[in-house]
Write a structure and sequence with these properties.
single chain, seven-stranded antiparallel sheet, globular, binds alpha-L-fucopyranose
Length: 752
């Protein structure tokens, strides 16, 4: 970290005001970007209506009220708990701007989140004045910035205040408002808002809520906000790093030397460097509904098609990942990083039996590889503490695994989830499979994958006939605890497969690789049961009426690669029977997983049916564990309540419908629904480090395809229709056409 030593806050802040913030930069926006989420009224409800912004560490939920602005904010390192107590992810605080103007009448109101540049804006007309607000949360400058302007001078008289979610004093010093505090576990925190006004005056006022900043007759207001804690992901430092005050000092000093337009430009450049890597168009009418509020589009969706909404929600998943998961920080938790309460659902933690994994399914295929790094770092940072806990529970093992519920200090709760770490290992492998970064594989991923293999090497139970079973597993989250549950077996199979490939690529540990290959060969295999289903347990007891949201025993179909329609058609058929029985409606993340399953079963129309169920407007906040999932008017996924894995899983599901590469070939349009007969996507990634710079299709047939080889790997293309490319020969494979060719780094291979 590059934070400078502590200076006095007052000195730092006073010096900042020598610099001014220039004009809003609305000019930099595209005229009618098609990636708006918007509403014609302020948000009343945090979970269902407010819009999120974030920079991977801090984030805000914006209400956009006319007489009162309310931004609830977070820092994703603010947690209770420790190594022994899972604790919970905490709310941080709120920023309020109470406008003196209390006129209830206003017109032309609009608040919108622009996914194209990650800015949030609000505009309205009140008493003849046009008011504009623009907000963003910058990763490069580490601040949230608000700019309030109007088309008349002296338009702003208001009181700006902060609220600490854990009580405690709010102080005003010059034009800064801040609070500091410490949680009982020693995590100290601070939030600071630096306020700059154009003309007018400001002074501090005090009441029962603490000190506030009163502004009179300003032409414009700029707020630069940041928060921080002393959390560090280093166990050897007792999970503590630099104190928040010097960090915040340095951040604000740095940010305030820049003009508003520079801050905005930095932000947009940084964001678009990630976001613009991929564009998608589903159908010809993708922008026709943009003049309807997002909520209205959701309501209309069940009556009339809106392919633009489907692709908007796809891109929203990418927006949310960029906003909640950036290198150097923590991974996206159950709510990304947005959380308004100190007792959020499931602690807003890291659940290891589907949820954190699902959060990252989109990262590599949708060209956001860097955004997966926090998850990989998280896995690495938990090794030592997890090993200590694992040793207590499973004394005769090496390596480590985890319980179901996890925090940021290695504290865990609920049941042991023995295949949890092996599922994490899949992410470590996939990052390599997509990037082909051998240094990363050798120095970072391989040692972790290997030690997780060692856990299973010691933990697997050998039966007299030589079969290996996972002892006393539990198929999340129902049925008996017993040996050889399919979920565990498939995840261990996946782990061993990845380990063996890694050892071969690195040319190391030959004996151990042979040993793991022998274990893999003896693993109890998936079984097909009496009603044709893929058995969830070794005993054929699956209930055809069971509609449980977890479909844990299809791990081998997705995200694993043990089951496929091409290589294991019988198992794929059984998976289809199981999936059909589990039904098409469920909780949010469960539907997202089903989209991915149906895509892997190459059934685009069924995947699409689930996608349509996913886009069901949900209003309430209840929790029905088995159904009721959908989407709120801010497009957050409803478990219910809000859980972000569904958003991420939905985006991953669409990528799986358009391209799959888990089987050693690039299969294009494997699950294209009839409703998407025409479309294009530019920027998908495939394993082998291929970038699909263009994929266009018409009437269900690929018409243009360009593949950029970024590593020089041999490539096999599988297409549903015949294609032509100079010098590349075609083969027929079942109903598909395949093309095998060698590639050179940096070269683009065109097909049409
Ligand atoms: C698992 C799921 C629940 C929920 C929770 C966070 O326990 O079974 O549905 O997603 O994680």
């Amino acid at each position: 970290m590059l934070f400078k030593p502590k200076q006095t806050m007052l000195f730092t802040l006073l010096s900042l005001f020598a610099f001014s913030f220039s004009n809003p930069i609305l000019a930099q926006k595209k005229a009618i970007p098609p990636l708006f989420i918007w509403d014609d009224k302020p948000a009343k409800n945090w979970m269902t209506e407010a819009y999120p912004i974030g920079n991977g560490r801090i984030g805000g939920m914006i209400f956009g009220g006319v007489n009162q602005e309310h931004i609830q904010f977070n820092d994703n390192t603010l947690w209770t708990g420790d190594e022994n107590d899972r604790g919970m992810y905490q709310a941080f605080g709120d920023l309020f701007i109470d406008f003196d103007q209390k006129d209830q009448n206003f017109t032309a109101y609009k608040r919108q989140l622009n996914l194209a540049d990650a800015t949030h804006s609000i505009s309205y007309l009140q008493n003849g004045v046009n008011y504009n607000r623009e907000y963003f949360c910058s990763f490069p400058d580490k601040v949230m910035v608000l700019k309030l302007t109007a088309n008349q001078k002296k338009a702003y008289s208001a009181t700006i205040r902060l609220k600490n979610s854990h009580q405690g004093n709010i102080t005003v010093n010059g034009n800064t408002i801040q609070f500091v505090g410490k949680l009982p576990n020693g995590v100290s925190y601070q939030a600071t808002a630096l306020v700059k006004i154009e003309n007018g005056s400001s002074h501090s006022v005090k009441d029962d809520d603490g000190e506030k900043l009163k502004i009179d007759n300003a032409d414009a207001i700029t707020v630069i906000f940041t928060g921080a804690t002393n959390y560090s992901n280093k166990r050897e430092q007792n999970w503590k790093g630099e104190e928040p005050a010097p960090k915040i000092d340095a951040i604000l000093k740095h940010a305030s030397t820049k003009s508003y337009s520079t801050l905005l430009k930095n932000h947009i450049q940084d964001y678009q460097a990630l976001f613009n890597r991929l564009t998608i168009t589903l159908g010809a009418d993708d922008i026709k509904n943009n003049n309807l509020s997002t909520y209205q589009r959701l309501i209309n969706y069940k009556k009339s098609p809106d392919l633009g909404l489907e692709s908007l929600i796809f891109q929203y998943g990418r927006y949310l990942l960029i906003s909640s998961s950036r290198p150097g920080g923590l991974p996206a938790n159950l709510q990304g990083l947005w959380n308004e309460t100190n007792t959020p659902p499931w602690g807003s933690d890291y659940h290891s039996n589907i949820n954190i994994q699902m959060n990252y399914w989109l990262a590599e295929p949708t060209n956001l590889s860097e955004c997966q790094i926090p998850y990989l770092d998280y896995i690495n940072s938990m090794r030592e503490v997890s090993a200590i806990a694992t040793r207590k529970q499973y004394p005769n093992t090496r390596g480590w695994t985890v319980k179901t519920e996890n925090n940021i200090f290695g504290g865990m709760s609920f049941l042991w989830n023995t295949p949890g770490s092996a599922w994490y290992a899949q992410a470590l492998w996939e990052h390599y499979a997509f990037t082909k970064d051998k240094d990363y594989l050798k120095n970072f991923a391989y040692p972790i994958i290997k030690e997780i293999c060692e856990f299973w090497d010691d933990h697997l139970k050998r039966r007299p006939d030589g079969t290996l079973v996972s002892p006393l597993g539990w198929s999340p989250e129902h049925g008996p605890t017993e040996d050889g549950v399919t979920h565990d077996q498939q995840i261990v199979y996946d782990l061993f497969t990845n380990y063996i490939e890694a050892a071969v690529i690195l040319g190391i540990d030959k004996d151990y690789k042979t040993h793991i290959a022998d274990l893999k060969a003896h693993l109890l295999k998936p079984k097909i049961g009496k009603w044709g289903q893929l058995q969830e347990w070794e005993t054929d007891r699956d209930d055809p009426k069971d509609q449980h949201r977890h479909i844990s025993h299809l791990f081998g179909l997705h995200p694993g690669r043990e089951i496929s329609t091409i290589k294991t058609p019988e198992l794929a058929k059984a998976a289809r029977v199981t999936l059909t029985a589990r039904g098409d409606e469920s909780t949010g993340w469960s539907m997202a997983w089903k989209m991915n399953f149906w895509a892997r079963l190459q059934d685009g129309n069924h995947a699409y049916k689930i996608l349509q169920n996913f886009i069901t407007p949900v209003g309430g906040s209840g929790t029905d564990y088995n159904k009721g999932g959908g989407i709120y008017s801010n497009l957050f996924c409803a478990h219910p309540p809000f859980q972000i894995d569904g958003n991420f899983g939905y985006t991953a599901g669409i990528s799986e419908m358009l391209l799959q590469s888990q089987a050693g070939e690039l299969q294009f349009l494997p699950a294209l629904p009839d409703k998407w007969s025409t479309g294009s996507i530019k920027g998908l990634k495939a394993r082998g480090n291929f970038e699909i710079t263009n994929l266009e299709w018409k009437d269900g047939k690929i018409i243009k395809l360009s593949i950029k080889s970024l590593f020089g790997e041999d490539c096999i293309v599988r297409s549903p229709n015949t294609l032509k490319s100079k010098g590349i020969t075609e083969n027929k494979s079942g109903k598909d056409f395949t093309y095998s060719f060698k590639t050179q780094v940096g070269k683009v291979y065109d097909f049409k």
